[in-house]
Automatic annotation (TrEMBL):
Signal peptide: none annotated. Residues 152-221 form the 4'-phosphopantetheinyl transferase domain. Keywords: Transferase. Residues 92-125 are annotated as: Disordered. One of its GO terms (molecular function) is magnesium ion binding. The keyword Transferase applies. This is 4'-phosphopantetheinyl transferase superfamily protein. InterPro entries: 4-PPantetheinyl_Trfase_dom (IPR008278), 4-PPantetheinyl_Trfase_dom_sf (IPR037143). It comes from Kocuria tytonicola.
Length: 259
C-alpha cells in the first residue's frame, strides 16, 4: 500500500470516539483531527448535496471551506453508520428559523455486528430501534466534534481563547460564573472561561435556542459534570494538549418527550 493510499483510507470511526462522562448509552461522540481527515473528506465529497457544495465554495477563507467540508462529509458518514444507509442518503436538514438540525430516521435494526458499520452504535433498548437520531456538530481550528444520540443533544468545541478574547466572553456569562472566574488570572482564567463558554454553547444547542437565549441567565458552575434545569446534563470532555481546545456535551436525561 502506498503512502498516498494510506492517507486516503476510510476512517475507522471507533478510533475517533471520545468518552463523555456520565452520558447515556445511545450517545456517541467523535472528535476528528482536521489535518488527518481532510484528504479523505475531499476525496469522499461526492456524498454532499449541490447546496452543501455551494455553501462550501461560498466561504471566503480556505480554512473555513475546509472545516465545513470535512465536518459535513464526516457527519454524513457517521450518521450513515448509525442509520444503516449510504452517506448521500442521509437527510441533513436544519430548521429554517432556529438553524437547529432536525432529527433523522434510518432503517430500524440495520446496524448489526456483521454489517461493516460501527457495532457499538446500536439502538438504545430504552428508546427502541425506531427512535429518531439527533445530532450536533461543532468545529474550531483543527478539530471537528460530532455527537449523535436518540435524544436532544448539543456539542461545542472551541480553541483556547486568548486573554483578551476570554475577557470579552467573561462579560457575557452568568454573574455567579463571572465572579468565580474573575478570581483567576492570565492563561488560567482564559482556559476556565473557554471551558465555561463551551458548556453554555452545548446547552443552547441542545435546547435548540442558540444564543437567542441570554448566556447571562445560564449558571454553569465549576463541576465537571452537572445537571442543569429539568432533565438536562452537561459534561466536560477531555481534550489532548495538541488540540488546544475545550469541549463539552449536553444531553436530555429524560427521553420521554421523543416522538
Amino acid at each position: 500500500m502506498s503512502a498516498g493510499t494510506a492517507v486516503l483510507r476510510h476512517p475507522v470511526w471507533a478510533e475517533h470516539r471520545r468518552r463523555v462522562p456520565g452520558a447515556p448509552a445511545d450517545l456517541t461522540l467523535h472528535v476528528l483531527p482536521l489535518a488527518q481527515l481532510a484528504p479523505w473528506a475531499f476525496a469522499a465529497a461526492d456524498c454532499l448535496t449541490e447546496e452543501e457544495v455551494a455553501r462550501a465554495h461560498a466561504g471566503q477563507e480556505a480554512r473555513a471551506r475546509e472545516l465545513f467540508t470535512v465536518s459535513r462529509v464526516a457527519l454524513r458518514h457517521v450518521l450513515a453508520h448509525r442509520l444503516g444507509c449510504r452517506p448521500g442518503e442521509v437527510p441533513v436538514v436544519h430548521d429554517p428559523r432556529s438553524g437547529a438540525p432536525r432529527p433523522v430516521r434510518g432503517r430500524a435494526g440495520a446496524v448489526t455486528a456483521g454489517s461493516g458499520l460501527d457495532p457499538t452504535a446500536v439502538p438504545s433498548p430504552e428508546l427502541g430501534g425506531a427512535s429518531p437520531v439527533r445530532f450536533s456538530v461543532s468545529r474550531t481550528a483543527g478539530v471537528v466534534a460530532l455527537v449523535t444520540a436518540q435524544r436532544p443533544v448539543g456539542v461545542d468545541v472551541e480553541r483556547l481563547q486568548s486573554e483578551v478574547e476570554a475577557d470579552v466572553l467573561l462579560d457575557l456569562l452568568h454573574p455567579a460564573d463571572r465572579q468565580r472566574l474573575a478570581r483567576l488570572r492570565g492563561r488560567r482564567r482564559a482556559a476556565a472561561v473557554t471551558r465555561t463558554w463551551v458548556r453554555v454553547e452545548a446547552l443552547v444547542k441542545g435546547w435548540e435556542t442558540g444564543l437567542s437565549r441570554d448566556p447571562a441567565g445560564i449558571h454553569i458552575g465549576a463541576a465537571a459534570r452537572a445537571d442543569y434545569g429539568r432533565g438536562w446534563s452537561v459534561s466536560d470532555v477531555r481534550t489532548a494538549p495538541r488540540e488546544h481546545a475545550r469541549l463539552a456535551v449536553a444531553w436530555r436525561t429524560d427521553p420521554a418527550p421523543q416522538g
